[in-house]
Write a structure and sequence with these properties.
This protein folds into 2 domains: 322 residues, Beta-lactamase; 131 residues, Calycin beta-barrel core domain (Lipocalin, Beta Barrel), CATH 2.40.128.20. It has 13 helices and 21 strands. Helix 2 runs parallel beside helix 12. The longest helix is centred in the first third of the chain and has 22 residues.
Length: 504
């Protein structure tokens, strides 16, 4: 009898689990459509992609119209399933957390900032600091003349509150990453959760954003102003949520009033009519020309929302000229949005599909081998003590015979990666030179290699969850290796000082 009872209980449990799975909503994915079916010319989309491609810094592109993806592409070795660092586009997500906390009664945008951190306040706070409110943090008008330190090991509420506030809050626009960090810290203080954990059930899970990563400061507070990584389509979903005034699959995730405040001009930030950085600022969203608004991040991370066109444009990249990409978008794409369905264009549609499927970051240029290769392969080149902490390099042919494997000794540890000839070979990130890229050792990467001349080998290494790639150049002369390296973009100098190694 007991066995039968247990069997019945087990069957009931299995049935309940099956029913729960059957009732659970399927993970969201945008429907796909041809551009013309949504009133957009394939030829115009192709013109934009062809204009972006030569920049050699593009990572991904996605265009959504009327809630359907009509074009998408990733420049190999970037992939649809991989996260991508957003840099300051993270700010728009932090503001969203504030909006949700306001809706739940956890705080008000008119709350004074000092109210949340009495233990971190200066002994005698000035009048401007006392007057600073959450609203001022949201609009980048906290009253600072200069930013406080933005490094993860430097930012804290105490450091922020100790920073001089020479302007009356609300009167002086100053782009201010620590101000966004303070929004993150306030949400955490009021909810007991990091912004990442707070947003998980309220935003990320409903949108189907399944693998968000958000770095924290030394106190365990999400960085807020940067540090978030999500996928390209995740960004498109976020933009679509705002386009739909906070509605998602028939349910309100955000209050429409918050969306209106966050995406409207709250403060002025310039007067140049040709600049998309001078059209006003909302709550951690930039106003754009042509009635649009966007979240954006360093080196070309864009989530552009066009309410008048019912469209969202997402671009991730590693470029220097962010305004140039905005200009191309308005020039090539904006005139292509029609008010009704267009006739099918099979020819342009096929060309667009082929172009999107064949996108690639340019591989290292040159020959697959050199008559001098055997002379230098397998030899260990030792470098004198240097600021880059590079100790030794050994080059060998990779398994395919057309490419190179680099074994790099740095800081007493040897890292190894391979570059294919005219193809990106995936592997863990290795030595990335001095500066911030050293953090990407072991991170997802891919590389290519080629002989630019008989005595010069070039290896191009791309860190595939970031905007960065680095070009290594090795020139050989006798028993010497002359090593140069340069990143595509960076917050400081991108070219490293030349190092000279000598064969053992």
């Amino acid at each position: 009898m007991k066995i039968l009872t247990k069997l019945i209980a087990c069957l009931a449990l299995v049935a309940a689990v099956a029913a729960a799975h059957a009732a659970a909503p399927k993970p969201f994915s945008f429907p796909r459509s041809k551009p013309e079916a949504q009133g957009v010319s394939s030829a115009a989309v192709l013109a934009l992609v062809e204009a972006l491609d030569p920049i050699d810094a593009m990572n991904s592109f996605m265009l959504v119209r009327h809630g359907q993806v009509i074009a998408e592409g990733w420049w190999t070795p970037y992939r649809a399933q991989d996260n991508h660092e957003l840099y300051s586009l993270s700010k728009s997500f932090t503001a969203t957390a504030v909006g949700l906390a306001v809706a739940e009664g956890k705080l008000s945008i008119d709350d004074e900032v000092l109210k949340f951190f009495p233990e971190d306040a200066p002994a005698e706070p000035g009048a401007n600091l006392k007057a600073m409110r959450v609203r001022d943090l949201l609009t980048m008008s906290a009253g600072h003349q200069d930013e406080a330190a933005i490094a993860a090991d430097k930012m804290s509420p105490q450091a922020f509150l100790a920073h001089p506030v020479p302007h009356q809050p609300g009167t002086h626009f100053k782009y201010n990453t620590p101000a966004t960090f303070m929004l993150s810290a306030i949400v955490q203080k009021q909810t007991g959760q990091t912004v990442l954990d707070y947003l998980r059930p309220r935003l990320f899970e409903p949108l189907g954003i399944t693998q968000p990563v958000w770095n924290t400061n030394w106190q365990g507070v999400s960085l807020g102003g940067y540090g978030l990584s999500v996928r390209t389509e995740d960004l498109a979903r976020f933009g679509q949520l705002y386009l739909q005034k906070g509605q998602w699959q028939g349910k309100p995730l955000l209050q429409p009033s918050w969306v209106e405040l966050a995406t409207s001009k709250q403060v002025g930030n310039g007067s140049n009519p040709k600049s998309d950085w001078n059209q006003g600022y909302g709550f951690q969203f930039w106003r754009c020309r042509n009635g649009a608004y966007r979240g954006d991040g360093a080196f070309g991370q864009y989530c552009i929302v066009l309410p008048e066109q019912d469209a969202v444009i997402v671009i991730t990249s590693g470029l220097k000229d962010m305004q140039g990409v905005m200009n191309l978008t308005w020039e090539k794409l904006l005139p292509a949005f029609g008010s009704k369905q267009l006739p099918a264009d099979a020819v342009s549609g096929k060309k667009l599909a082929q172009k999107l499927a064949g996108l690639s970051v340019k591989p290292a240029a040159g020959s697959d081998t050199s008559p001098l290769a055997t002379k230098y392969f397998g030899r260990k080149f030792i470098f004198p003590t240097n600021g880059q902490k590079l100790e030794a390099i050994t080059l060998t042919p990779n398994k395919s015979g057309k490419g190179v494997t680099m074994a790099i000794q740095s800081g007493g540890t040897t890292h190894q990666f391979s570059g294919g000839h005219r193809e990106w070979q995936p592997g863990p990130g290795s030595f990335a030179g001095a500066g911030s890229l050293s953090a990407y050792i072991g991170a997802p990467a891919a590389a290519t290699s080629a002989w630019a001349a008989d005595d010069t080998l070039v290896v191009k290494q791309c860190f595939t969850e970031t905007p960065f790639y680095i070009t290594h150049q090795f020139r050989f002369d006798g028993d010497q290796m002359f090593y140069d390296a340069q990143r595509n973009v960076g917050f400081g100098a991108t070219k490293q000082s030349q190092l000279v190694g000598r064969a053992e």
